[in-house]
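Homework help board

Subject: predicted structure for assignment chain

Our instructor gave us this sequence and asked us to write out the predicted structure in token form, then describe one feature. I got the tokens but I'm not sure how to describe them. Can anyone check?
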Amino acid sequence: MIVNYKYLIPIIVVLFFSGCSKKYDDGRNLTTKDGLIYKNNETQPYTGKVRGKVGDIFIEYEVLKGKMNGEFVLRNKNRIIEMKGLIMDGKNEGIWQYYFPDGKIVSVGKFRNDSPDSTWEWYFSNGMLKESGDYSMGKKEGEWHSFTPNGSLYIKRNYKDNIQIDSTIIK
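My token output:
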């Protein structure tokens, strides 16, 4: 399962600002304008912590001078973390982790300047490695490995500049 997480954060922010739960006051009094977050009817960009709820998803993040800046956390209806990472100046940075609803790890990798840029790993729900490979500035590079649920390597793929150049099935 390869997901382009780069686009997930803006979608969640839009959902958050368009339909916050009444349980959290700090989110429903915020709006976005020209890419910055403001408290309603204020002219200075917002700085502070935001906690809100969209449907069954709990969202927590920090804002500095109108831009998301700091830790970002999504929790499911049982308050178990499903996603967490760091946002700097409105961009995904550093290590991001994604979890199954039961709290087991789905994937982990690093962002640089809002693009995947490091080794990324995906896991089966049993905890075994499902796939691993490297990104360079958001593009797949080098050898990628796919595994069976019991941990056996079954496919090797090579990428150059996000294009698969070969694939080998391991028997």
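Reply (TA_rk): Your tokens look well-formed. For the description, you could write something like this. The first strand starts at residue 30 and ends at 33. That's the kind of observation they're looking for.
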